[in-house]
Amino acid sequence: MISADVAVLGAGIVGVSTALHLQARGREVVLIDRHGAAGLETSYGNAGIIERASFMPYFFPRDLKKLALYALNQLPEANYHVSALSSIAPWLWRYFLESAPERAQRHAASLRPLVERCVIEHEALMETSHASDLLRRTGWIKAYRSEASFAASAVEVERLRAFGLNIDILDEAALAEREPHLYGVRGAVHYLDPVSVDDPSRLAQAYATLFVQRGGLFLTGDARSLQEAPDGRWAVATHDDEVFARDLVVALGPWSDVITRELGYDFPMAVKRGYHMHYAPREGAKLMRPVQDVDNGYVLAPMTRGVRLTTGAEFAHRDAPPTPVQIDRAEPFARQLFPLGERVEAKPWMGARPCLPDMLPIIGKAPKHERLWFNFGHQHHGLTLGPVTGRLLAELMTGEKPFTDPAPYSAERF
Ligand SMILES: Cc1cc2nc3c(=O)[nH]c(=O)nc-3n(C[C@H](O)[C@H](O)[C@H](O)COP(=O)(O)OP(=O)(O)OC[C@H]3O[C@@H](n4cnc5c(N)ncnc54)[C@H](O)[C@@H]3O)c2cc1C
User: What pLDDT, on a 0 to 100 scale, did the predictor assign at position 50?
Assistant: First the structure.
């Protein structure tokens, strides 16, 4: 039998960061994942951007022309399973309501304190876990293929500059100096404050290694074995032994609701699935930073395995078989943008962004249980927000003054 102060369920970037922050505050922590290593699910396959400029989450589009195109299911940036529509429609409706301009502004303001600290918190963990070599301080670029969309980006740029962000507007010549191998771009916006990593999974693993080096236990086990023991502690069966912990953190990303539902919570959680594929760059071609093809809705990011193409959102059941049509739709555009060679993998990777309808995570105490805590629902920005939300939850759990008001992330809002 293993006793601990806290058991953290889930070793994605969110769970690992939470475990580290609790450990730094003197708690004996056991980290439990069904895989024997950290960062092998959603935290494996993202675009690697620590998005310091993403003050506005991805809300439901309200542009009718765009919606009509989405309905036709032909664009690279979004896809949906017709068979899933009736069951996800209530969630989509809530997402639509929460995306109304006034509410969206409120949610964006709530997200901002987290985004503002995202790079600082990663840097601190990268330094102590000797993972700073993964970090690229080259910002990221939004590339526009049409004059019209480039012109329209000015509004967003001005809004973000008001928050003190460093942003360069690039014409074709200026872009060519920073990214010599991009083609067919009419103009670009270079966000200089974000940073990126060339292997998000290795980053989570470096953080998990630090956790173990500092005396933490990382065990393999299935969270679905969770029980409330007669003495009031939480019990989880692992491959090594049964773990008994006073406090429990659910950080299972898109699988969090598997456990919360069992515990009597009905959170409106859905997933936006996404895919990636790596390509060998053609000889001599190099990408210096992640680049979003805004008009065609995908991102190209330089990674250790090659150039990673990541797709936009797919609305489907989390566990439905993969349908990577967005990779096939985006690939011809990506080949025009950058000299991509062969596909590296036989089939695309798939992940699922865990989303609440207001695009804010749930961080904090469970409403109906003592000593049960949540940290999940990080939507498109879990890599960005893992360490900072880990810190916030650890502060709440240890009675420290939280660095920001946690009310907007409370589970009570549902
Ligand atoms: C295509 C794509 C691109 C993205 N790009 C970016 C980006 O550039 N920047 C950014 O910030 N974010 C990005 N994201 C979002 C980001 O990847 C996620 O928000 C983040 O990885 C979520 O982390 P997590 O720790 O909550 O979940 P996960 O990484 O999924 O971790 C959950 C963990 O729980 C474990 N688990 C699940 N069920 C059980 C069980 N029953 N028992 C034990 N363990 C279990 C899993 O094994 C897993 O390790 C992207 C996502 C996608 C899909």
Answer: 98
Predicted local confidence at residue 64, as pLDDT: 87
Nearest alpha carbon, ligand 1 atom 1: 274
Task: Look at residue 220 and give its three-state secondary structure.
Answer: strand
- Rounded to an integer, what distance in angstroms lies between the CA atom of residue 8 and that of residue 45? 22
Helix (H) or strand (E) holding 333: helix 325-337
Q: Which helix (H) or strand (E) holds 190?
A: strand 187-191
373 has which bridge partners?
249, 365
Contact 204, 20 (CB under 8 A): no
Please name which of 393, 404, 387, 19 lies closest in space to residue 195, comparing C-alpha atoms: 387
- pLDDT at site 62: 87
pTM: 0.98
Q: How many residues are there in the chain?
A: 414
Structure tokens at 83: 């068979």
**DSSP track, 57-95:** --PPP--HHHHHHHHHT--SSEEE-GGGHHHHHHHHHHH
User: Which residues lie closer than 8 Å to 378 by C-beta, 6 or more apart?
Assistant: 14, 253, 353, 354, 361, 384, 385, 386, 389
Cβ distance 397 to 250 under 8 Å? no
Residue with the smallest CA separation from ligand 1 atom 3 is 46
User: Which ligand 1 atom sits nearest the alpha carbon of residue 351?
Assistant: 53
Q: Is 300 in the pocket of ligand 1 (CB under 6 A)?
A: no
